[in-house]
Design a protein that fits this description.
heterodimer; A: 280 residues; alpha/beta; Rossmann fold; 2 domains; 6-stranded mixed β-sheet; 4-stranded antiparallel β-sheet; 10 helices; 32% helix; globular; disordered N terminus; B: 383 residues; mainly alpha; ABC transporter involved in vitamin B12 uptake, BtuC; 14 helices; 65% helix
Chain lengths: 280, 383
């Protein structure tokens, strides 16, 4: 058990309780500087599920993730593993939800080990320091992510794919069962994109994690997600399996994209097609 | 390669999160034993304490009357209750040690440590390697207040800086805090978008505004230029024990608050969103740290005037040599900042004896080239 068990954290991590969704969002409203970004969003993510949020630029995908992660204030009800998010103390929430931002800050001079150790912050008493157990836990995570040989390297000297694994390691060191991944592959080449997503999927299966991600690459998103959510015009316009959401009609309507959707082994593949010029 | 049964093993009660519980005692084979987190190494701590002791003895020994270092060390040990050593110094020499030089050296140590610590703290809080203790308007606020007291109040008209009345440190302290408060309020005026950058910009605006006021006053009261500049360039010359006692409580408060937050500063270094998602309250930590560092800087400025460069050079040198974690930078900046300023003061009062060079001039003259040297030899951290 965690060092400072609290009733709220226990309830929140008690994902074993059958039927309690990992995330339940009802009537979420978010405004930034007076501009409404999300209005009336409902979303449910079952424990152990992988849900990917897609939508055109500016649809509020990142904002939705930040609201669920408790990084910004929002109106509406957000429930994490049956506990209202607002009722969780920050440290307890941090043991339940881990967020990997789209492009995390890479502090100069910080080693991989030190960076991943920061993930243990919610277990370290305020003003305290890491225990040997924290260090051991981090080495555990590094080994699982094949990063053991990297622990002394400076984060800033790693390649994009290696960095993304380190960011993931930090989130896993938090020991949270819900992972919020904002564009986890946006900075990577196609091979590393697959590598990272396979890794996330493997960790999810092995450790019963729940994944809520945002992604721009629709084919890739569809191959990994159990369900997809299409955000547009400040709200959810479609929810369902990749086959239900990735349709030529929905993508044309909400992305104004000209695409062909072809069936693939793990989900529909979305192929951009240059639109016909009018008048020819 | 790895089994998929960790969901059920160890009877995990928390829905099998990866590492929610402290790891089991058996580590996976192949974990390197020497993989502790980068923390403050003992040898650096020892080096810092040693530097402070060297500065203390050198500062007390060297001067117009040169005293043997061994005797000075013995006399310093005599100050510890219960210690009685024969230092071989005369009554007069003992008085030079305890009443003249020691308070000056101790004040130098306190102010140097405070400025370096505050500089390191600001650099972490603002994630800006160029931040210095005077960033938020402390210098300009103190400068305007002191100029006003000297020019309008007639203090220092006698032309002798040694006769500065108590109103000057008080004015400097009040002016600094007023300026930082203005910066806070202006920087917070951005409403929701309140960010570290807003605070820095507000600091620039407040500094410019207050400096303009100071320039105007000086231009109208040109007879006060000399005493004002003596103060601006920093001085430890008049230090007595009462100066030390004035600074000490703030030094202790600032040091305790900042050092307790050294790990939080490492978390802040990875970004506000990350800090928040790790369960911290970045805005609250930041404001508390700024308040502590500003209070310490204001106290230092009120006692010794504006001494530049310490708050940038020392934390940077520590960062380049000993590591970039704030758990390393902050305690070592305190120690090496203290030693640096006390030793600089030795140079200031011996290099051109019998006249003294303003200590702010010496810190700049020594610090600039030294900093360039350090940058050239160890530039890896910045690339």
């Amino acid at each position: 058990m965690s060092r400072e068990p609290t009733a709220a954290a226990d309830r929140a991590t008690g994902a074993g309780a059958a039927g309690v969704p990992a995330v339940e969002v009802r009537g979420l409203h978010v405004s930034l500087d007076g501009t409404p970004i999300l209005t009336g969003v409902d979303l449910t993510v079952a424990a152990g599920e992988w849900v990917t949020v897609i939508g055109p630029n500016g649809a509020g995908k990142s904002t939705l993730l930040r609201a669920i992660g408790g990084l910004l204030s929002a109106q509406g009800a957000i429930t994490l593993f049956g506990t209202p998010s607002a009722a969780l103390r920050r440290r307890d929430r941090a043991r339940v939800v881990a967020t990997v931002a789209q492009s995390p800050v890479v502090p100069p001079g910080m080693s991989v080990l030190d960076y991943v150790l920061l993930g243990r912050t919610p277990y370290i008493p305020p003003l305290g320091r890491e225990s040997a157990a924290d260090v051991a836990a981090v080495h555990d995570v590094l080994a699982r992510l094949d990063l053991s040989g990297f622990h002394r390297r400076e984060l800033a000297t790693l390649s994009g794919g290696e960095r993304q694994r380190v960011f993931l390691a930090r989130a896993l060191a938090q020991g949270a069962t819900l992972l919020l991944l904002d564009e986890p592959t946006s900075a990577l080449d196609i091979g590393h994109q697959q590598e990272v997503l396979e890794l996330v999927d493997q960790l999810r299966r092995e450790h019963g994690l729940t994944v809520l991600a945002t992604m721009h690459d629709l084919s890739l998103a569809g191959e990994y997600a159990d369900r997809m959510v299409l955000l547009a015009d400040r709200g959810v316009v479609a929810v369902g399996t990749p086959e239900e959401v990735l349709t030529e009609h929905l993508l044309a309507t909400h992305y104004r994209a000209s695409v062909r959707v072809v069936p693939g082994t793990h989900g529909p593949l979305v192929v951009p097609v240059r639109p016909q010029r009018s008048g020819t | 390669m790895r089994s998929s049964q960790s969901r059920t093993n160890e009877g995990s009660v928390t829905g099998a999160p990866l590492v929610a519980a402290p790891a089991p005692p058996t580590r996976p084979a192949g974990t390197p034993p020497a993989s502790r987190p980068v923390g403050l190494r003992k040898r650096w701590l020892v080096a810092g304490v040693f530097a402070v002791l060297v500065a203390l003895v050198a500062g007390v020994s060297l001067g117009p009357v040169s005293l043997p270092a061994g005797s000075v060390a013995a006399e310093l040990l005599n100050l510890i209750p219960g210690v009685h050593l024969d230092s071989g110094l005369t009554e007069r020499e003992i008085a030079i040690v305890t009443e003249l030089r020691l308070p000056r050296v101790v004040l130098g140590l306190l102010v140097g440590g405070l400025l370096a610590l505050a500089g390191g703290c600001y650099q972490g809080v603002f994630r800006n390697p160029l931040a210095d203790p005077y960033l938020l308007g402390v210098a300009a606020g103190a400068g305007l207040a002191v100029t006003a007291v000297i020019a309008l109040g007639g203090a220092g008209r006698q032309g002798s800086i040694t006769g500065l009345p108590m109103t000057i440190p008080l004015a400097a302290f009040a002016g600094s805090l007023l300026a930082v408060t203005m910066t806070y309020l202006l920087g917070g005026a951005g409403g929701r978008s309140r960010s570290p950058t807003m605070l820095i910009l507000a600091g620039v605006a407040v500094s410019a505004f207050l400096s303009a006021g100071q320039t105007y006053l000086l231009q109208r009261h040109s007879d006060s230029i000399q005493p004002v500049y003596s103060w601006l360039l920093g001085r430890l010359a008049t230090a007595g024990w009462h100066d030390v006692l004035l600074v000490l409580p703030y030094a202790v408060l600032t040091t305790v608050v900042v050092l307790l937050h050294r790990r939080e500063l490492d978390v802040l270094a990875v970004g506000d969103d990350e800090a928040r998602s790790l369960g911290l309250h970045p805005q609250r930590s930041r404001y508390l740290l700024i308040a502590a560092a500003s209070l310490g800087t204001a106290a230092a400025v009120s006692a010794t005037g504006l001494i530049g460069f310490v708050g940038i050079i020392v934390p940077h040198t520590v960062r380049l040599l000993a590591g970039s974690s704030y758990r390393v930078i902050l305690p070592l900046s305190l120690l090496f900042g203290a030693a640096f300023l006390a030793l600089t003061d030795v140079v200031a009062r011996t290099a051109a004896a019998p006249t003294e060079i303003p200590i702010g001039v010496v810190t700049a003259l020594l610090g600039g080239p030294f900093f360039v040297l350090v940058l050239r030899t160890a530039r890896r951290v910045f690339t």
